[in-house]
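Give me the fold.
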Amino acid sequence: MLIGIVGKPNVGKSTFFKSMTLADVEIANYPFATINPNTGAGHIKIKDVAQDFGKPSNPREGFVLGEHRFVPVELLDVAGLVPGAYEGKGLGNKFLDDLNQANALIHVIDISGSTNEKGEPVEPLSYNPAEDIKFLEFELDMWFLGILKKGWEKLSRTIKYEGKEIAKPLAKQLSGLRVTEDMVKDCIRGLDKDPTTWNEDVLKKLASSLRKKAKPMVIAANKLDIPGAKDNLDRIRKEFPGHKIISCSAESELALKEAAKKDLISYIPGANTYDITGDLNDKQKNALEFIKKNSLPTGVQKILDYVVFEILNRIAVHPGGANKLEDSEGNVLPDCFLMKKGLTALDFAFRLHTDFGEKFIRAIDVKTKKVIGKSYLLKHLDIIELILGK
C-alpha cells in the first residue's frame, strides 16, 4: 500500500510528510524545495486490542502509545505540481511518473490562500484555493488521458474487427497506473461497445473516471491556523460537496511531535490535548499554547486514517493464539496486517503464507474463542488463530 502526497509547490506538502514520518526532508519557503521523491512510514491509529487481555502489544513494526497502536503505511512525497505538468512543465513528467504506483492520494492545499498558482508566497486570503483543487484534478485527468490515447486508434480498431471486449487490453495498457479490469468495466458501462466511436469528450470522461477509481483522493486543507482560513474552508466545502475535505495544520503536528520526541510533552497523534513533561522556556510555552488554542486536533492523523480505513477500505487483523498471545520470543501480538474489507479467514491465511492457506483447516476467533471456517468474514481488530493440517 502506497499513499502519495501531492499538491503544488510551497503549500506545506513536505511539512505534512515530515509531520507524519519525522523523516529528514527539506522544508523551504520557495517552489520546488522537493525535487526527488521522499519516502517514509506514516502510521495509522488503532486500538491496542492486546490491552483487552491485560497487556500492551509489542509491535514488530510500529509502536504503542497509551491505549493506541500505530501501524506503519508507506508514504510518498513527490515534487510539486504546476499547471501544465502533463505537458512537462515544471517537474511535471517526474511528478507524474513518481505517482504511478500510488494506491491513493492526499492533495495538500493551502486553505489560507497564501500561496499563488506558481507556489509563491502571497498575502493570506489573496488567492482562491479552489483553483488548486480544479487544476490538480485536471492535470491528473490529462495525464491519464495521455496514457489512454497511446496507440488508441490501433487498439480500438483491433477490438472492433476482432469482436473482443476492451476491458482487459485497456486495463493492461493502464496497469502501470494501478487500473484494473474491474475498474475499466465499471467506467465503460453504458458506452457504445464499438470503441472506434468514442470521441475526444468520451475519452476525457473515461480518463477522469478511471483516475478517480485508481487514484482516489482526500483534500488536506492545510494552514488552518492562519486567520481567515476557516472561512475559506467553509466556502470550499460548499463549492465541492462531492469531495472529502479535512482541515489540518501540518506545522502544528510537526511541532508537537518534535516536542514529544525531546520528552518535553506527552502527545498522542490525533489527540486534542497534550501534557507537559519537560522543562519549557517561555517561547516554547507560548508556541504550544498557541497550538492548543488554534490547532488541536491538528487533523493530520485523521487524514491518514481516513485514507486507509475509508478510501482504501482496510481493516486491521492480528494473528495470535487463543491460549497465548505471545510469539516464541515473548512478544505480545507482534504483527498486524491491513486487510481489505470483505476478505475471509482463508484469505488471511494466504496473506500470512501460501503454505498456511493451502494447509488451512479452520481458525479460532481469539476474542470469542469460537471456531470459524474459511469463509468467515474478517472484522476490524480481529485476532485470528489458524489451525493447519499437515
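The chain is about 35% helix and 20% strand.
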